[in-house]
């Protein structure tokens, strides 16, 4: 009974070999890299709207912000339904998950029936997607509500140094901010250099997330501007010469301050969430954020100390915008455009900017709106924690070109934690 | 004494979850929640927790129902020696555990997408593959210890194959089968990456909601409620399975 | 077993050879998902690591990815092996003890079994979150014990990866207990009760009855724990430190790098991880052959 006749054994072996070979062939056939940038097939808005009717748009978005989730579910989705589009939010841990799904689809040659229709994206992920030709491009000029957006706004023309090229529609603006506990920090610093000095004189009470974390990497670039004597002295275009010339001071400053950081600079929080947790647990007295919108709720619900305030930085900080992008292979691109357009309407942008709702700064050019529309923004309640965008974005610093980011991150990784 | 220490070992890490689930506010440096309440529960319901739990349960059940019989077949085949490729099969079965999940999932997904396998079917295929190693090895050790004598005897007494399976084999194997099914259920019940990447986001499950909320600050309460929710159904399932098992034990 | 085969009229059994063929065919069909995942996952990872499956750019066979990751590998391999070995060791001891208590029965044994099952049900991501809340410098445990954050040892993100190992050991000891107890529940009673009646002490029963019977399940489940711990990254990423990086953390960081070309390096590390895992499987197979109960 335990004996298998040789003939049948050979048969199974053949079968298994055939399966393996077949699988390998199919995998090999998938080698072709995705084609270059896809452009929208639509030429006018009316055909987009008629095409969009009845479509279900899958919006993949980071789900760690309850206010953002409920804004999309309770405000944006009903408005989209009124325009004939069902909006389905897919909660994800990290925007990279959405990008990875799209890249796998493209890698498998699925170029028209993708499962991701819309992604909340900016920065690294947008750049990675652009590199792979993963975004649908040149579609934002079709959106009627793009007229509410400034055509010359540098924050919206390039996304962390990667040209936008109509591959994503603006959604929110944000400003790199430093929050601190004003009960403990009696002498709040007013410059980036001042923050490092404060850290040095208060051992263990400051740290930043390890690059390549988005926020940690932004902080390191802020320090680069500071040690270089201002962003004006750092050429936006990357070159090895500029890197070699400017970064030694950066890494010296960071390794000098390291022994005074949390845990003596022996380790760093892996991401901004961990940094926030340390701040919430009273282990450090300052935290960094690229999305100050969330601070209001975190103070209100007692996660952060009640005395949390936003540092005012004299030389200004990095500004950025976040966008809605449509993958090149989205199955419901028309519906996605309708949602992106809707998200840019004054009504939606006002609702989203309400600190009790979500508190995201508007991407619209408020000065160019009608007086009645401007009034809607002016009537919004003020956050008790976060200053207005006008105050925060004073002296806003431009971003470096995208090539700088991996170079600075890699330089940090090889020099600072191995110290 | 030993048992008490083990209870502490297993229960202690659950303490923050249990406390957070009923904390409306828990500010530093208080050792216990500063305001008790059920905000977390409300938020969990608002986040779609109940429907997502239903979907996860369905997924876990599907995976268990497919992966347990496959595991039983493979285990029996390996123990009895009639399994094909007896040298390669165990390595093949270890491989899904050995390949780092992100590599396995993304690579497999290219294959599935290329072959136009529907996302839901692909999802089940990948999760079954992830569960089969657990069911097989769970059952393999059980079959290795299993005495086929009872079945032989039943057959000699004239029982049909079906009777032997249902009346003798399954009752004897019930505890091990129940545990194997439980492990397979958990693979589907607690998966995030495969459900999202292979399932294409169409099927929003409990781990997707929980993990995405856990990625943000200030959500501890809702995450705790969702996590405790995630613990209950498997536990109920295990108790039920254990009960059927123990009744039939000869 | 040779007496099987032709039987009298009263026996409706189908031909056993046919039955076996059917079972074997079913098994092959059942293995299809596993083959798909192994071929798809491992195949594409290997192809990617040698430059044959780039997301962007030309297809070019090279071992660059292996060469360029080499300098950092030694410390990463060391860190990964430390975490996996320590987690597995603690999980084996506590898992086997738990299984012994569960199999021995009694009310406490049932409670231990139930709470162990709860632990198995907690996803690792949540396990890491709750372990972080418990063990952080100003976490729940130091707060409850009234110990100041500055006096609390660096368990989370500390030099010995204690919180990471604690999380893996916690979850995986429950897993090992489940597997081992599941195998033994029907079995041990047959041997244990007579041994107890013959006056064997608890320690003697553990050594003479329980451990020999548990060895195969213990070896298999420990191997699964080891290779799982080696390949997964979330816990080490959430509760670990910036440097040195475990293999899986390095792989995921390179995989998610802004530059898509880093994915070849990520794939190379994944292949290396699989190789180490398979070496561990080979060691386990040798250990298994030595264990008496295994066929």
Characterise the protein shown here:
The complex is a heterotrimer of chains A (419), B (250) and C (295). Chain A is built from 16 helices and 13 strands. With 419 residues, chain A is an alpha/beta fold. In chain A, the strands form 4 sheets. Chain A has a 6-stranded mixed sheet, with helices on both faces. In chain A, helix 3 (66-82) links the parallel strand 2 (56-62) and strand 3. In chain A, helix 2 (45-52) packs across helix 12 (333-343) and helix 9 (240-257) crosses helix 16. Chain A is globular, with a radius of gyration of 24 Å. Chain B has a single domain (38-248), classed as MetI-like fold (Orthogonal Bundle). A two-stranded antiparallel sheet of chain B has the order 1-2. In chain B, helix 3 crosses helix 12 (220-248). Chain B is globular. Chain C has 295 residues and is mainly α. Chain C has a single domain (65-290), classed as MetI-like (MetI-like fold, Orthogonal Bundle). In chain C, helix 2 (64-104) packs antiparallel against helix 3 (106-121), helix 2 packs antiparallel against helix 7 and helix 9 runs antiparallel to helix 10 (262-290). Chains in contact: A-B, A-C, B-C. Chains B and C meet through helix 1, helix 2, helix 4, helix 5 and helix 6 of B and helix 1, helix 2, helix 3, helix 4 and helix 5 of C.
- Taking pLDDT < 50 over at least 5 consecutive residues as the criterion, the unreliable ranges of chain A are 1-9, 28-35
Strand content of chain C: under 5%
Structural class of chain C: mainly alpha
What would the CATH topology of the largest domain in chain A be? D-Maltodextrin-Binding Protein, domain 2
- Mean residue pLDDT of chain C: 86
Rg of chain C, Cα atoms, Å: 24 Å
Total number of strands of chain C: 0
How many whole angstroms does the radius of gyration of chain A measure?
Answer: 24 Å
Give a short account of the largest sheet of chain A: 6 strands, mixed
Mean pLDDT reading of chain A: 90
| Protein chains sharing the most extensive interface | B-C, 101 and 108 residues
Indicate the overall shape of chain C. flat
Oligomeric status of the shown chains?
A: heterotrimer
Shape of chain A: globular
Structural class of chain A: alpha/beta
- Helix percentage range of chain C: over 70%
CATH architecture of the largest domain in chain A: 3-Layer(aba) Sandwich
Rounded to the nearest angstrom, the distance between the terminal CA atoms of chain A is 65 Å
The helix/strand series of chain C, from N terminus to C terminus, equals: HHHHHHHHHH
